Amino acid sequence: MKNIAEFTHYTFFTEMSELASRHQSFDLSLGLPDFDIDPRLSDFLKEAADLQYHQYEPLSGNPLLIENIIRFNAKRTNKIYLQEDEVSIVPCATFALYTSLKCILNQGDEVIIIQPSYYTYGPSVVLNGGVPVYYDLDHDFTINWGKLQKSISAKTKAIIVNSPQNPTGKMWSQSEWNQLYELIKDQEIYLISEEIYDTYCFDGIEHYSSFIHPQLKERTFCIFSFGKMFHSTGWKVSYMLSSKELTAKFRCHQQYISYSANAPAQYALAKYLEIFDPSENQKLMQKKRDLLNTLIKDTPLSVENISEGSVFQIVNFRNVSKTMSDIEFSKWLTIEKKVACLPLSAFYTSRQNSDYIRFSFAKKDELIIQAMEHLRQNL
């Protein structure tokens, strides 16, 4: 069993960002957008201040925001139909993940984490008394259902899934949610489904939420992020979908941890959802993905699997170095070649090396162009 002390160190996310700043590198390491939010969203935030939205919202969240979340999800191509008592406004996706686990875990319960995965998953399990069980995706970042089934034990209490996935850009289809349900249907296993990049799905692929599955819905905490949707991560407002019963459990813990989320931002987001066009979001980010991948072709780096969703692209660097670890290569690229990235092994507990690095394309076009041109000339 992992001790939380094993997680208490600077992550590569922090280290690589600091290296990029120190060496004045083109920073494609983190998923933080460097471009402005929609000015209309800013205007709604100013309006919230003028209307005196300065006090706590209800535990469940701003009623108008909940109403507009329900409307927004009903308009998706793959529609999600919701009731008010299935929607919770939360401070952030990490909070939702942590508090969801707190609702369901007892000491020693196991939670399956599909790797590569975001670095907060393991610590959130351990802090709630659980035991992380890591399942590694196959070499092409697909699921081997037989291997995943072997990761399930009598102690398994939850599985954490991320789709579209950070860092691989892979997306779960309806068929895959069906297969997951078949694996867990005869056991009390919950699903934590982080779907925070839901509006960034490319090449005509539509997001398919776990919450559409009629049986999974009853055992799922499904997490979304306005920070990711609207390039406003510092606003700290997300939302979570869960059944009426799980929502009641969740709020029992939420009231003692955060109570509610940022009140002015909730109002602004509610108003913005009324005019938000998700297709514009999708087009913006796909254009950036395509720009990055087109320019990479003029470098020795290689894209083997084009990102299906999210704001990240995995890139093979072995044409440049056969001997460096991905950590060594990432630091070398950041310091010596002035383009910051993340090593894929930063998303594993089971690996110290890989053939891949991750770039973020949630950046201004000029930064992507400058970074790739710099690599074209210097690699």
From TrEMBL:
Sorted UniProt keywords: Aminotransferase, Lyase, Pyridoxal phosphate, Transferase
Keyword Lyase: yes
InterPro entries xref list: Aminotransferase_I/II_large (IPR004839), Kynurenine-oxoglutarate_AT (IPR051326), PyrdxlP-dep_Trfase (IPR015424), PyrdxlP-dep_Trfase_major (IPR015421), PyrdxlP-dep_Trfase_small (IPR015422)
Signal peptide stretch: none
Aminotransferase class I/classII large domain ranges (all copies): 27-374
Cofactor: pyridoxal 5'-phosphate
CDD domains to which the protein is assigned, alphabetical: AAT_like
Gene Ontology MF annotations: kynurenine-oxoglutarate transaminase activity; lyase activity; pyridoxal phosphate binding
One cellular component (GO) term of this entry: cytoplasm
Record keyword Transport present: no
Protein's name in the database: Beta-lyase
Species of provenance: Chryseobacterium piperi
